[in-house]
Automatic annotation (TrEMBL):
It is an enzyme of class 2 (transferase). ATP binds at residues 94-104. It comes from Enterococcus rivorum. SUPFAM superfamilies: GHMP Kinase, C-terminal domain, Ribosomal protein S5 domain 2-like. This is 4-diphosphocytidyl-2-C-methyl-D-erythritol kinase. It catalyses: 4-CDP-2-C-methyl-D-erythritol + ATP = 4-CDP-2-C-methyl-D-erythritol 2-phosphate + ADP + H(+). GO terms for molecular function: 4-(cytidine 5'-diphospho)-2-C-methyl-D-erythritol kinase activity; ATP binding. It comes from the Bacteria. GO terms for biological process: isopentenyl diphosphate biosynthetic process, methylerythritol 4-phosphate pathway; terpenoid biosynthetic process. The active site is at residues 10, 136. Its EC number is 2.7.1.148. Keywords: ATP-binding, Isoprene biosynthesis, Kinase, Nucleotide-binding, Transferase. Belongs to the GHMP kinase family. IspE subfamily. The gene is ispE.
């Protein structure tokens, strides 16, 4: 039997850091939304007690460094399972991009193996397990539009974000989330209006939402990689309603009500960066 799970990318419409906690993590307030750019994972039972990962991507490790491997290992350990599994990852989401590709693959693995091995775990139980692997994994278990707080484990489902076109632009470099959080200074932080953003999303007010998007990590990553500011400026010049870095970066997204604007941004940025995508928001 083969089980298939899709693992959608997310964007941060809002990301605020409130303070650094004693455990070293930051207390966050985020508004996240899934978009229709997804990896595809398949899970197949095997006789040998081993976790085997295959992928078409040259960027992914196939061993314990991969969060997919860690998810399978965690379930096997917790539930004393002796089954083997072959996991194939068809990678479409850019790696180390701020789009939660690795976390979404990890979440898809927890959902997929829950089905393959008939574990009967609830989404909440899967989210708790996922939180032991990475802060974005609990949100990725359910995806959609959500208000996410704590370290990433407290999730309040929101109505789907207003429908629009999203242009994703991933500059060449990769960014380490830990290192960006490490450089965040609470003396110079710019806090976005997360309450206002949440309200705009809840009221399905696209234009208000476009004025409220914001990310407290953006200026930290831009300092290191000024190209992010250049991408934002170009997006706005080509007619984006809003342009923002996602997560700790480096991917920048533009929001557009009209498809023709999204196409213009796509055309304008395609020569500037290699990885450019036009996607839709997910319901
Ligand atoms: O949880 P995860 O391993 O994905 O996080 C990567 C790094 O990002 C952490 O080691 C930490 O430095 C930083 N982080 C943080 N506060 C959070 C989430 C992540 O400081 N809420």
């Amino acid at each position: 039997m083969e089980i298939i799970e899709k693992a959608p990318a997310k964007i941060n419409l809002g990301l605020d850091a409130l303070y650094k906690r004693e455990d070293g993590y930051h207390e966050l307030e985020m508004v996240m939304a899934s978009v229709d750019l997804a990896d595809r994972l398949s899970f197949e039972a095997t006789k040998e007690n081993k976790i085997v990962i295959e992928t078409d991507s040259s960027f992914l490790p196939l061993d314990r460094r991969n969060h997919v491997y860690q998810a399978a290992e965690l379930l096997k350990r917790e539930y004393h399972l002796k089954q083997g599994v072959k996991i194939q990852i068809q990678k479409n989401i850019p790696v180390a991009a701020g789009l939660a590709g690795g976390s979404s693959d990890c979440a898809a693995t927890l959902r997929g193996l829950n089905r393959l091995w008939n574990l009967g775990l609830s989404l909440e139980e899967l989210a708790n397990l996922g939180g032991r692997i990475g802060s974005d994994v609990p949100y990725c278990i359910q995806g959609g539009t959500a208000f996410v707080t704590g370290r990433g484990e407290k999730i309040e489902t929101l109505p789907p974000m207003p429908q629009c076109w999203v242009v994703l632009v991933k500059p060449r470099m990769s960014v380490s989330t830990g290192s960006i959080f490490g450089s965040l200074s609470f003396n110079s932080i710019q806090h976005p209006d997360i309450e206002g953003l949440k309200d705009a999303v809840t009221r399905n007010d696209y234009h208000l939402m476009a004025t409220k998007v914001g990310n407290a990590l953006e200026s930290v990553t831009i300092k290191r990689h000024p190209v992010i500011q250049q991408i934002k400026d170009r997006m706005m010049k080509y007619g984006a309603d809003a342009a923002l870095m996602s997560g700790s970066g480096p991917t920048v997204f533009a929001l557009c009500e009209k498809k023709s604007r999204a196409q213009r941004i796509y055309n304008g940025l395609k020569g500037f960066c290699e990885e450019v995508y036009i996607v839709r928001t997910l319901k």
